[in-house]
Design a protein that fits this description.
With about 120 residues, the chain is mainly β. It has no helices and eleven strands.
């Protein structure tokens, strides 16, 4: 069983930056695709970004492309989401997710709140 624990959320003014971290348990972390989803109040959960376990393409939602950067440090079993030029519409609970076998996002963290004030 893999556990994902997010941190780094908080309150920031529009135009500011935050970096989210997600610490994962398990020895095979490096093989997992990892990603971030978010859910704003009254809205459906939406994909934000994903990074493969090995080499490969990184994907971003159009709404965050050019502002957010996903990265990972396999030595620390951690994935990051650097968020720059934040907008009020980025306000949401952000969830870290893991896909161990290309079968889907089987593992989810508990979420961390990001609030962007205008």
């Amino acid at each position: 069983q893999v556990q994902l624990v997010e941190s780094g959320g908080g309150l920031v003014q529009a135009g500011g930056s935050l970096r989210l971290s997600c610490a994962a348990s398990g020895r095979t972390f490096r093989r997992y695709a990892m990603g971030w989803f978010r859910q704003a109040p009254g809205k459906e959960r939406e994909f934000v970004a994903a990074i493969p376990g090995g080499g490969g393409s990184i994907y971003y939602a159009d709404s965050v492309k050019g502002r957010f950067t996903i990265s990972r440090d396999n030595a620390k079993n951690t994935v990051y989401l650097q968020m720059n030029s934040l907008k009020p519409e980025d306000t949401a609970v952000y969830y870290c997710v893991g896909d161990p076998s290309s079968s889907g996002w089987d593992y989810w963290g508990q979420g961390t709140q990001v609030t962007v004030s205008s």
